[in-house]
Every structure is written in C-alpha cells, then in structure tokens.
Design goal:
The chain has helices at about 15-20, 35-40, 90-100, 115-125, 140-150, 165-170, 175-180, 200, 250-260, 280-285, 310-319, and strands spanning about 5-10, 45-55, 55-65, 70-80, 105-110, 130-140, 160, 185, 190-195, 205-215, 220-230, 235-245, 265-275, 290, 300-310. It has about 325 residues and is an alpha+beta fold. α9 crosses α10 (about 280-285). The two termini are about 15 Å apart. The relative contact order is 0.17. Residues about 315-319 have low confidence and may be disordered.
C-alpha cells in the first residue's frame, strides 16, 4: 500500500493513549469503552492496534483482535478525526492491518442493523452473514441495585466457569450445537469460533462466564458478562445469553453484578444480547432491580455479525 509523504501508519503504543482518546470530542465517548479498555487491550498479545498519522499528528486508530488461532481478524475501535473524514483513513488502516498480518484469511465484525449498508453488502456478496442478536437495555442506580442483590436465592448447579470448564463445554459437540446455534460465541461484540485457542481471549479480566446445568444438561444456560466505565462515570455491562432462558437467569445476573458492583458509582446499564426477547428476561432483570429502557437512548436494537474471506496469497499466485 502506498502512502503520501505526509502520511504514516504504525503500531500504536501505550504512550499514544492521550492522542488516541482525543481523536473524537469528549461527548462522542459517552458510550465508548475505549478510554477504560485501552491499556488492557494494548497489553494483550492477541490484539494489535495501529495509528494513522497525518502531518505528524495522530488522526486515526484501529484495533484488530487476532482470534481463531490467528486466522481471523476482528476489527474494532475504528475512529478518525472529523477533519480527516472522507479521505479513506479507515480503509488505509484496514489494508495496512491485513498487510502486517499475512496469516489472516477472514475478517469478522459486528455492528448494529441500523447501519444501512450492511445488508446491501451481504446481498452483493461482499460479506457473509454469520449471526444476528437482539439487543435489550436495562438500567438502574446503585442504591436500587444493592437493595435487590440479597434477595436472589442461590442455585446449586450454577457456577462461574474457568478456562478449563469452558473448554470442556465447547468440546461437547452435542451440547454446544444446541446452545451455540450460530457455531460462534459473540462476546462483547467479538465473534469467536468454538475452538480452544479462543478461550483465553473470551475470559479476559473484565469478562465472567456463568453456567447453570439443569435437567441432566438437557436444559442449560451460559451467560457472559463484560463491563467497562464510560467517560461520564457510568458503568455499562454487556450480557450475552446462550441456551434456555429460565429461572436461573436472575441468579446469573446477580453473580455478574457482584463481580463489578464495587465499581458502580451511580447509574448502571446492562445491554442484553440474546436470540429473541422473552418476558422471563424482563422478570429476571426486575428481580435484580433493573428496568427495561427505550432503545432510542442507545445505538442499536439488533447486533449483526458478518464475515469476509481474505486470501492474500491467492492474488499473488495469479500474478
């Protein structure tokens, strides 16, 4: 890829934090995880970040998660300064990322169905549809939350999963073919294939997996909760639900909240992602003091995952 003399792309470093976070005005970060996640992501060996520099100033940024054994790239956190928009910066960052990671054969990302071009790109064959999840939003304040937490009864067959537990779960094909119907785990908007090498990426320090095995494993549920603090001080949690949604869900939510309740200062929001909205989800949230809020305040009511094949060596072979 050719760049002009005034342009440069390089790996981002921890020292780039202030420059990267200042790419967008502060108000645009009210719902953004990056200021809180930046250092954790930069220290992860399976994540690479790049900055675009124009006239000596950082004006673009993008992260790629290297999942599925390093063959799939998940693009996240792409952003450019407003005065640099319309100049193909994200495209250049994407091309540079692919050049720097020649083992990539697929690019995957998740976005809201409110993006009008996503379905057009699926229809014209540019992207392959992978999965779609319904998004529901629940909110409360810390006082109400603490009042409700002690009311949840424990379930003997509910446990927090460690890496070994989750690996064993995905190895049971009869089990996960029913629970993970898309043959993917979409956690915190990152789509993972059900392979062992992805487990350390899934269970990072901000993510907990909770499972309930009921009726001799014929009816089971696993939830994944990830949290981050917004720039306005509010705490936000992504809750991904897989399996049969039943009475165990209320206890799952309680366990996830106990993991990060000490970090809540006032307002707290959970984005629930599931295959379909069910009244029992509202009931479980209400039992924990959380009430359904309008999606209009947030960015999407559905999350869609798409994939694009990328074979860099195939083009070279034809030349």
């Amino acid at each position: 890829m050719l760049l002009k003399e005034t342009e440069m792309i390089r790996r981002a470093t921890i020292e780039d934090y202030d420059a990267v976070i200042s790419i967008l005005p502060g108000k645009d970060y009210d719902g953004d995880y990056l200021p809180d996640y930046f250092h954790m992501l930069m220290n992860n060996q399976s994540i690479k970040a790049y900055v675009y520099i124009l006239d000596g100033k950082i004006t673009g940024f993008q992260i790629v998660y290297l999942v599925d054994g390093g063959t799939t790239g998940v693009m996240r956190s792409g952003r450019i300064r407003k005065d640099t928009q319309g100049k193909g910066v994200l495209r250049k960052l994407g091309e540079f990322t692919m050049e720097q990671n020649p083992n990539l054969t697929h690019v995957v990302f998740a976005t809201g169905t409110n993006v009008p071009t996503i379905f057009q790109n699926i229809r014209n064959g540019e992207y392959q549809f992978v999965a779609k999840r319904v998004c529901l939003y629940y909110q409360t304040n810390k006082h109400s939350l603490i009042e409700h937490l002690p009311e949840i009864d424990t379930l003997e067959r509910t446990k927090v999963l460690n890496q070994k537990d989750l690996i064993q779960t995905i190895k049971d094909q009869d089990f996960y073919s029913q629970m993970f119907k898309d043959n993917r785990l979409i956690i915190d908007t990152v789509p993972y294939r059900l392979i062992e090498s992805n487990i350390p990426m899934i269970l990072m320090e901000r993510t907990k997996a909770v499972a309930s095995y009921l009726d001799d494993n014929k009816k089971s549920i696993i939830t994944f909760g990830s949290y981050f603090k917004l720039s306005n001080g509010e705490l936000f949690c992504n809750l991904d639900i897989y399996g049969d949604v039943g009475n165990a869900l209320a206890h799952h939510i309680c366990i996830h909240i106990q993991h990060f309740v000490e970090h809540i200062t006032d307002i707290f929001t959970i984005e629930v992602r599931c295959h379909e909205p069910l009244p029992i989800i509202d009931k479980a949230m209400s039992k924990n003091g959380l009430m359904l809020v309008s999606v209009g305040k947030f960015v999407r009511n559905e999350l869609i995952c798409v994939e694009k094949s990328y074979y860099p060596n195939a083009m070279q072979a034809r030349l």
